[in-house]
Inverse folding.
């Protein structure tokens, strides 16, 4: 076989390094997006924002490590979210029975290993499709959560609180004396340890090389690997065991993060995990990609969510759409590389002459088809939002045109010393109310200047302080709470809640009747209603 | 005549519906002895009530999804996006009924609540526009798989993730409640048996005519067995795949309308959640191979009923509703074990050993 004579162009260099194209474009796109965010939003210019990309997703880093192993061997693991949820429930229920966390953790990890082993054996020895087998694993794990406990189990444990709240300051960037500056949490540290271990196993051990050898080639590579005498079965089972272990660890981290065990934890998490792996440039056909790419994929999904939060006008569902679009982009890049490989190999076989290239997506009128698809989507959505109203003009009018919000008034209460200021607006009754709660128990209800319903009452001061601790426990001052105020329906309310605690003040907007708002927001408003005396709800 | 009957019997015994039918009958027999009143019917105000009717009502969206999924799986593909497409179609339907949230000044809420005839768009558009959107979703999947050569699981995963976002985008993440009686009838109405059953029958008739009275069914099987040789045999294998995915999207759209109408709300986060997995499971129980090829629509429908009957019986036994998902997992495991090649070979070996021993035993007896 003649060797390829490299033409002296940058294209040739790119061709030689084409295997780095997916991970390179992931990293490049991440940098570009981050820089764009820094330019657009002043709040993003602090270093902590970058580390918060890690802090908000330690469990995702864990699951992605395991998923990458499985995907590289050419499989797929849907069970991550189920094992994660089961991990949170097992650890919470064990702690409830008086176990120490350090006794509970090994049990949870063993559970993950057993699940991974069972699924791996099914897939390898019974030749079951990975998709189906891991799906059964997910269902079984989620079902077992509810067998253990139907309701959420809250965790009250000192170790958990310590692990959750201790900050590891970044050396060189933070100020160790004042204990301020960029930090990561213990959870992130644990996830990064797993990530580094994964890097070592995947790239520097025989097992890792075998995993790469098995994946790809639509199953043909697995046959070749078997013929070469590689331990194919053992490696495939091991990949699922690693994934089960990582998912169980992610479950532990998740239970620490939310301080509870619940069978609903991590709903749809397997999709986020697979999306992060794909965005990270790992081919779902197997055999291609890097663990480091998957980490960037995680950062990318976190970044998208942060950008949507900083923007404030976009609802959280845009994250799904952006992630889907990114997946499409990276799947396109992957198939470009595959086609490129085929072309280079074809050229090498034909002695340097370019043979007829295989049918690839980027030829054959790709641009035309992409344009048609784009037009269909845009016309579909646009026509819906703007076209139909023109065709069918509305005939009736809204009964309630509520007053605008009074953010200045709410803010003045806050600066006046009110620790909780809840503003509510709209509804069938067309109300506009501000309820300001002070630390000493004074409550002012303000329905607008001169309104006869305005009044001042008192509640117990220790109830107010207990409520503040509770709100802080919901992680009010973290990225968990963000504005979600799409246009509300005619009978819905808009909310604006400002909380001042421990020198921090944060306002979060919300609208009811939508799924875009965090569920915990309604826990807080519900608590506040319970706190207030009758006649003030 | 006798020859005809035995020929029909052997034809039936060799068909795909035998295994799922036997499974369904087995479950029925167990239920008959263990759950008192499982087969009871009550007749009240022109409607039938009973466990079997419940199975039909709750199983109908899965049956419709399973039909579309059967065609896709028969071409050697898979469609993970049906749940998201259900959410899209239900969101589109609800916004056609009451689009006040996209900035239109519409009737006041009390008027809509008290007026069960109110829809914003004409009623036929309320039903057809969501289906058009669902078919567009199916065409998108089909285009990615057939023309862009993306692995089916990966290609449909994109819409599975983005689809729920799109569904929420349509209604601005607001759950729209359905007050219109005609729309609610689709998922809740009765003409002796639930109206949903008639929809399933209609979709089945269309799918059966499409695949068994035209050449499309044969082409689908041929593409599933070997798409390259089908191409050389002159079959436009890309267009066949496109048709299969579009039909799957259409079925998902109908299922979405039924579920939204049954729940009387559009909940883009919950409608169709994990139903893609139910549909695939129904197809697997029906005996259609995941690698493509031979398929049977009726077998998949029976597969969906097997799944739903298992769930309903478990609920009758007192298994909590939230733990039902574990039961489903066990069903998957049992089905996998039954269909696994290793186990089948093992079973066959035992059978042949037994049949080899029998003549030997007879010989020694002589």
């Amino acid at each position: 076989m003649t060797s390829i004579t490299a033409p002296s162009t940058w294209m040739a260099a790119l061709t030689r390094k084409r295997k780095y194209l997916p991970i390179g474009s992931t990293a490049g796109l991440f940098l570009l997006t981050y820089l764009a965010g820094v330019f657009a939003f002043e709040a993003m210019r602090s270093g902590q924002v970058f580390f918060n990309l890690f802090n908000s997703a330690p469990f995702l880093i864990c699951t992605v490590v395991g998923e990458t192993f499985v995907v590289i061997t050419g499989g797929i693991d849907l069970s991550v979210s189920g094992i994660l949820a089961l991990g949170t429930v097992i650890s919470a229920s064990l702690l409830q029975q008086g176990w120490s966390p350090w006794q509970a953790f090994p049990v949870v990890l063993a559970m993950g290993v057993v699940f991974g082993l069972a699924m791996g054996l099914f897939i390898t020895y019974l030749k079951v499709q990975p998709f189906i087998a891991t799906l059964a694993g997910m269902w079984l794990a989620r079902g077992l959560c509810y067998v253990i406990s139907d309701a959420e189990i809250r965790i009250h444990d000192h170790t958990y609180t310590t692990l959750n709240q201790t900050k590891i300051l970044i050396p060189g960037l933070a100020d160790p004396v004042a204990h301020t500056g960029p930090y990561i949490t213990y959870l992130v540290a644990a996830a990064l340890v797993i990530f580094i271990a994964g890097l070592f196993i995947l790239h520097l051990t025989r097992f890792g090389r075998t995993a790469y050898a098995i994946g790809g080639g639509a199953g043909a590579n697995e046959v070749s690997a078997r013929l070469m005498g590689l331990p194919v079965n053992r490696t495939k089972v091991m990949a699922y065991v690693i994934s089960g272990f990582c998912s169980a660890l992610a479950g532990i981290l998740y239970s620490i993060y939310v301080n509870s065990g619940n069978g609903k934890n991590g709903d749809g998490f397997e999709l986020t995990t697979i999306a992060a792996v794909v965005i990270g440039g790992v081919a779902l056909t197997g055999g291609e990609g890097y663990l480091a790419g998957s980490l960037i994929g995680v950062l990318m999904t976190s970044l998208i969510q942060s950008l949507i939060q900083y923007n404030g006008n976009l609802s959280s569902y845009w994250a799904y759409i952006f992630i889907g679009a990114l997946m499409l982009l990276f799947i396109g890049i992957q198939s470009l590389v595959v086609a490129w490989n085929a072309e280079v190999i074809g050229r090498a076989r034909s002695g340097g002459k370019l043979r007829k290239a295989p049918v690839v997506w980027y030829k054959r009128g790709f641009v035309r088809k992409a344009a048609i698809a784009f037009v269909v989507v845009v016309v579909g959505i646009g026509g819906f939002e703007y076209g139909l109203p023109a065709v069918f003009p509305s005939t009736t009018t809204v009964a309630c045109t509520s007053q605008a919000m009074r953010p200045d008034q709410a803010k003045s209460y806050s600066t006046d010393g009110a620790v909780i200021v809840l503003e509510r607006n709209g509804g069938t009754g067309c109300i506009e109310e501000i309820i300001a709660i002070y630390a000493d128990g004074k409550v002012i209800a303000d329905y607008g200047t001169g309104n006869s319903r305005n009044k001042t009452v008192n509640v117990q001061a220790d109830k107010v302080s207990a409520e503040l601790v509770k709100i802080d426990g919901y992680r009010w001052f973290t990225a968990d709470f963000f504005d979600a105020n799409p246009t509300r329906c005619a009978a819905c309310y808009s909310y604006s809640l400002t909380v001042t605690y421990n020198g921090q003040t944060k306002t979060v907007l919300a609208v009811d009747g939508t799924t875009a708002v965090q569920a915990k927001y309604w826990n807080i408003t519900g608590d506040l209603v319970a706190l207030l005396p009758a006649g003030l709800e | 005549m006798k020859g005809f009957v035995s020929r029909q019997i052997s034809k039936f015994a060799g068909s795909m519906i035998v295994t799922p039918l036997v499974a369904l009958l087995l479950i029925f027999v167990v239920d008959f002895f263990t759950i008192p009143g499982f087969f009871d019917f009550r007749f009240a105000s022109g409607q039938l009530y009973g466990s079997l009717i419940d199975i039909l009502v709750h199983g109908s969206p899965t049956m419709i999804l399973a039909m579309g999924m059967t065609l896709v799986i028969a071409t050697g593909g898979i469609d993970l996006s049906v749940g998201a497409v259900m959410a899209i179609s239900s969101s589109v339907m609800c916004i056609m009924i009451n689009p006040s949230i996209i900035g239109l000044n519409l009737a006041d809420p009390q008027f809509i609540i008290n007026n069960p005839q109110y829809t914003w768009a004409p009623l036929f558009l309320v039903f057809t526009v969501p289906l058009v959107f669902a078919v567009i979703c199916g065409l998108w999947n089909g285009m990615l798989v057939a023309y862009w050569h993306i692995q089916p699981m990966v290609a449909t995963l994109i819409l599975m993730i983005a689809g729920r976002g799109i569904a929420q985008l349509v209604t601005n993440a607001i759950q729209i409640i359905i007050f219109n009686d005609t729309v609610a009838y689709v998922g809740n109405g009765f003409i002796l048996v639930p109206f949903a059953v008639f929809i399933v029958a209609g979709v089945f008739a269309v799918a059966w005519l499409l695949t068994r009275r035209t050449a499309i069914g044969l082409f689908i099987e041929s593409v599933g067995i070997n798409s390259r040789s089908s191409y050389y045999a002159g079959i436009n294998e890309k267009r066949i795949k496109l048709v299969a995915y579009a039909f799957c999207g259409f079925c998902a759209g109908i299922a979405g309308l039924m579920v939204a109408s049954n729940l009387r709300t559009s909940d883009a986060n919950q409608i169709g959640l994990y139903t893609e997995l139910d549909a695939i499971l129904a197809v697997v129980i029906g005996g259609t191979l995941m690698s493509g090829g031979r398929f049977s629509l009726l077998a998949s429908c029976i597969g969906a009923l097997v799944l739903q009957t298992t769930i309903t019986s478990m609920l009758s036994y007192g298994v909590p509703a939230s733990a039902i998902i574990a039961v489903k997992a066990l069903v998957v495991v049992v089905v996998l074990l039954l269909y696994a090649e290793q186990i089948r070979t093992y079973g066959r070996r035992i059978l042949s050993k037994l049949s080899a021993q029998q003549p030997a035993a007879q010989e020694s007896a002589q």
